[in-house]
Amino acid sequence: MGMIAIIDYGMGNLRSVQKALEVAGGTASIVSRPEDILKADKLVMPGVGAIRPAMDKLKELGLVESIKTYISSGKPFLGICLGFQLLFESSTEGGDVKGLGILKGTVDRFQGSVKVPQMGWNTIQKTPNGEGMFKDVPEGSFVYFCHSYFVNPQDKSVTATFTDYGIPYTSSICVKNIWGTQFHPEKSQAVGLTILKNFVLL
Questions:
Q1: Distance from CA of residue 202 to its chain's centroid?
Q2: Catalytic annotation, pick one of 22, 60, 81, 139
Q3: What is the pLDDT of residue 2?
Q4: Rounded Cα gap, residues 54 and 50, in angstroms
Q5: The pLDDT value given to residue 127
Q6: What is the spatial distance between Cα 35 and Cα 16, in angstroms, rounded to a whole number?
Q7: 112 or 65: which carries more pLDDT confidence?
Q8: Burial classification of residue 30, based on how many CB atoms lie within 10 Å of its CB (0-12 exposed, 13-18 middle, 19 or more buried)
Q9: Among this protein's residues, is 81 annotated catalytic?
Q10: How far apart are CA 197 and CA 201, in angstroms?
Q11: Averaged over 162-190, what is the pLDDT?
Q12: Which of the listed residues 16, 57, 164, 192 has the most CB atoms within 10 Å of its CB?
């Protein structure tokens, strides 16, 4: 199954992600150097916080190009929460902030009467695109969220699950070797561990 590298750029709950991956059957290490990212068999980018400081930190550590090179190699990648949002072109957070631009689309703030951030448990509705990612995960399962912004992919066919929070939005994606979840699988108990196991077994 190979080594899973977890990117440390100063904005993630790294130990809980590492522990969850190990419980799911993987071998995971925390890395912060470009060469370690490129050597990984699987790569996970967690994250909590805002896109602008996250991009600043990735640039400061010289990780942007290594992440892009790794993903273009076709090896499995998982982005979690902020690490998921960073995959897209831009965010409306604090103006027009550029992301990694690996996937086309934007990151937008929840509007209307819903409480922001969305914090706590909510359900997921699976699409056919998420068949492998959500193998053995029942329809309507609850997972754990903590976010004020959501991704708006240009190509909706990449969506693996939808979640309703005032509006139906993309709560996970699967496109080629890239998996991304807005929710935290490492905090989502048995359902989250099942998703991580499916990733470990890729």
A1: 16
A2: 81
A3: 85
A4: 6
A5: 97
A6: 24
A7: 65
A8: middle
A9: yes
A10: 6
A11: 98
A12: 192
Of 22, 60, 89, 184, which residue is the catalytic one?
184
* For residue 84, pLDDT beyond 80: yes
Active-site pick, 131, 147, 174, 186: 186
Query: Quick one: pLDDT band at residue 55, thresholds 50, 70, 90?
Result: very high
Q: Which amino acid is at 98?
A: K
Q: Evaluate if pTM is beyond 0.85.
A: yes
Residue 94, pLDDT score: 74
* Domains of the chain, CATH where assigned: 3-200 (3.40.50.880)
Residue 1 has pLDDT above 80, yes or no: no
Annotate 98-112 with b (16+ C-beta within 10 A) or e (fewer).
ebbebbebbbeebee
Residues in contact with 123: Cβ distance below 8 Å, sequence separation at least 6, in sequence order: 140, 141, 142, 143, 163, 164
58 with 51: CB under 8 angstroms?
no
Q: Record the tokens describing residue 124, joined without a space.
A: 């997921």
